[in-house]
């Protein structure tokens, strides 16, 4: 059962008290539109695209409010940033259309957008300055560390509750842990857990800026804070061992070699020589180059964030939808998202950009499909393409899927074998986590 795939992370008892309330109305809780309105107010963002340049110019004056040292900022507690937000799909039926998919469940891409907005607001809550209605900080999403789901289907006619707080703080970065729950029979049950990393920058979003330190209270919060430190070290280790920096391990080289041998054509050439050129596809397998989809997105002003770049949640939604379509076409059945991990926001996407998305099935095992989506912006003037994001999605198909096979050894096929190993690593990390 997919429900065993995740367990609720422990929250400090003070934070978790409200999770047990079974009331469906909860009219006192803000909704997602309130979250985005509050973000615009905190930053002073203009709702009119024509005024965005002036609005950003006005933010320059907030430089004087930046702290020179982290020690100059008052420490915060976890409960200081704790927020609960309602998504009233059950009590406000008119909202469902935006979130509904053809399978009569909730569009997960929309949930990614909501998590991104909520994570930023949580960080602004952590760093808010008394008597200062506008924040001098530009807080942006740096990394989606992981999102693990424990429900295959999110119902479109039941209220959803998001909760979250800052769980770890560095000098200029913050880890945010969020949980999503859905109302069933009067109680909220867990749907997913998410860990995002946000970074703070100056008012013009050019240089790092200090954020308030976090002081854990009690053993539960100390354990959560310690987990944040371990997450940081794990990310450093994973990045250090990246196939872009280090050669595959001996075990991984053997895996690729075995795949290569299994794809050699059996016919002989001359006296007992096996052809290295002629390749055959093993039974119940698909070549990697036949397991990909591409998409193009024009980035309109409607999709801008409060800093007039393209909203990170929108990028995640588009990447997820392409990833889902890639998994769906590969497995020939409906895929369910199991996990999202290691989404690094490498560079911002400007309004007006041409966004190129490429989805690739890079690893499969039984009924699991690991999909990598590569996002890059295309400059029509220079005809150059620059990577903005790499997305990793783990899907579970309704049926067992064919094995994806790279054509290995030489030329462009060597890249496919590296993608295969990278996908295998991400899949192993996800399975270990859940």
TrEMBL record:
SUPFAM superfamilies: Thioesterase/thiol ester dehydrase-isomerase. Residues 81-204, 289-401 form the HotDog ACOT-type domain. GO terms for molecular function: carboxylic ester hydrolase activity; fatty acyl-CoA hydrolase activity. It holds the Pfam family 4HBT. Gene3D superfamilies: Hotdog Thioesterase. Keywords: Hydrolase, Mitochondrion, Repeat, Serine esterase, Transit peptide. One of its GO terms (biological process) is acyl-CoA metabolic process. Its main location: mitochondrion. It is found in: Mitochondrion. It comes from the Eukaryota. InterPro entries: HOTDOG_ACOT, HotDog_dom_sf, Thioestr_dom. GO terms for cellular component: mitochondrion. PANTHER family: ACYL-COA THIOESTERASE, ACYL-COENZYME A THIOESTERASE 9, MITOCHONDRIAL. Belongs to the acyl coenzyme A hydrolase family. This is ACOT9 thioesterase.
